[in-house]
Automatic annotation (TrEMBL):
First-level EC class: transferase
Keywords: ATP-binding, Cytoplasm, Glycolysis, Kinase, Nucleotide-binding, Transferase
Primary location recorded for the protein, binned into one broad class: cytoplasm
GO CC annotation terms, alphabetical: cytosol
Subunit structure and binding partners: Homodimer. Monomer.
Name of protein: Phosphoglycerate kinase
UniProt-listed InterPro entries: Phosphoglycerate_kinase, Phosphoglycerate_kinase_CS, Phosphoglycerate_kinase_N, Phosphoglycerate_kinase_sf
A biological process term (GO) from this entry: gluconeogenesis
Binding site for ATP: E332, G358, G359, H360, S361
Family, as annotated: Belongs to the phosphoglycerate kinase family.
Enzymatic reactions: (2R)-3-phosphoglycerate + ATP = (2R)-3-phospho-glyceroyl phosphate + ADP
A GO molecular-function descriptor: phosphoglycerate kinase activity
Domain of life: Archaea
Length: 411
């Protein structure tokens, strides 16, 4: 695959596909973490005289955080100490004129890519190539740099559509992400421990099945709703109120699949031995085998318990490789952050090579100043797809682009 340092950029027009999709409260972006993650790539391109066109998506149509990229351009301008012009257009005449007017070392940001209907659908590379977005912009572009790791599991025009028309190059963030994930997935160092939490249960089941079946994990620790599903699959009752909640979320239909995984790999999948419930506004810990488990009937489970944290900690301290995705509970409520913070602290203190990913996980790490994690991934869904052994469309597009244009390097 092409690396950023492979090419000269002076006077060249570069389309940088970033993923600056950020949390928004009351119409304002509240975190610049994803901006800082792509900063090294942007600085490198500008310092090497590129005429830089930056594209990102923000949320999805009809959602509360579906906003223009005006704030994104302002935040980047502040971080760079130079203006990033906001262009209220994607591939129309105005956008094309502003792109043509760029001088070496200047940057602009086009409008939220998902304001274009073509960008909302997932299509194969050949269909993405034929979109108006790609056809209108490709004549103006010399190189495409893709640094949107968090979107590598999607096949959309801005992500894959240029790959066979122009050299598509990995940004520094993309390269770092792919190297870290590949190292964790392909290593033979043992024990390899996967920590699967959060609410993306079907994705997590795919990961568990893939890494266990292909001999890439020794232990899987579960929490969050993933832990609930495996606990039910082991035959424990989690109370009527929790079952109702899981039914509403469509999670009960995944219990049979979890059971199949357990039938094949029972000793390797660990589930919580105690949980924390909200009892009259307080955190109360309930052992799964205790008399108090009647509390599950009327009170929601919002975290794993302290005994589970200790058991998981022992496993994590002895690990050589740790891959973790998703929180252990509703960490947004301080009293129910005990499990998530305890497990992530243990990952940070473990001598293992560790990767933690997922938006909620990252938020928790920064909020509680957890250090020592080898690699914090910017992609949750993309990371899960990678460890589930699935082909990621953007990585496939990088390979196609390299095969098509590698002669440029030899020349």
């Amino acid at each position: 695959m092409f690396r950023l340092i492979d090419f000269e950029y002076h006077g060249k027009t570069v389309f940088l596909r970033a993923d600056l999709n950020s949390p928004v409260t009351d119409g304002k972006i509240i975190s610049d973490a994803r901006f800082r993650a792509v900063l090294p790539t942007i600085i490198y391109l500008l310092e090497h005289g590129a005429k830089l066109v930056i594209g990102t998506h923000q949320s999805k149509p009809y959602k509360g955080d579906y906003i223009t990229t005006e704030q994104h351009a302002e935040i980047l301008s502040g971080l760079l100490g130079q203006e990033v012009e906001y262009v209220e257009d994607i591939f129309g005449k105005y956008a094309r004129e502003r792109i043509k007017a760029l001088k070496p070392g200047e940057a602009l940001m086009i409008e939220n890519l998902r304001f274009a209907a073509e960008e909302v659908k997932y299509k194969p590379i050949e269909d993405c190539e034929k979109t108006f977005f790609v056809r209108k912009l490709s004549p103006l572009i010399d190189y495409v740099v893709n640094d949107a790791f968090a979107a590598t599991h999607r096949s959309q025009p801005s992500l894959v559509g240029f790959a066979r028309l122009k050299p598509m190059i990995m940004g520094f963030l993309m390269e770092k992400e792919v190297q870290a994930l590949t190292k964790a997935y392909e290593t033979q160092e043992k024990p390899r421990v996967y920590v699967l939490g959060g609410a993306k249960v079907d994705d997590s089941l795919r990961v568990a099945e893939n890494v266990l079946r292909n001999g890439r994990a020794e232990v899987i620790l579960t929490g969050g709703l993933v832990g609930h599903v495996f606990t039910l699959a082991k035959g424990f009752h989690l109370g009527d109120s929790n079952l109702e909640f899981m039914e509403k979320k469509g999670l009960l239909e995944l219990v049979d699949w979890a059971e199949e995984i357990l039938n094949e790999f029972y000793p390797y999948v660990r589930t919580p031995v105690d949980f924390a419930v909200d009892y009259r506004g307080e955190r109360v810990e309930v052992d799964l085998l205790s008399e108090e488990k009647w509390l599950f009937d009327e009170h929601p489970i919002l975290d794993i318990g302290s005994r589970t944290v200790e058991k998981y900690r022992e496993v994590l301290m002895g690990a050589k490789i740790i891959v973790a995705n998703g929180p252990m509970g509703v960490f947004e409520r301080e009293e129910f952050a005990v499990g998530t913070v305890g497990v992530f602290r243990a990952i940070g203190e473990s001598p293992a090579f560790s990767i933690v990913g997922g938006g909620h996980s990252i938020a928790s790490i920064y909020q509680h100043n957890i250090t020592g994690i080898s690699h914090v991934s910017t992609g949750g869904g993309a990371m899960l797809s990678f460890f589930a052994g699935e082909k990621l469309p953007v990585l496939e597009a990088f390979r196609e682009s390299y095969e098509r244009f590698k002669g440029l390097l030899e020349g």
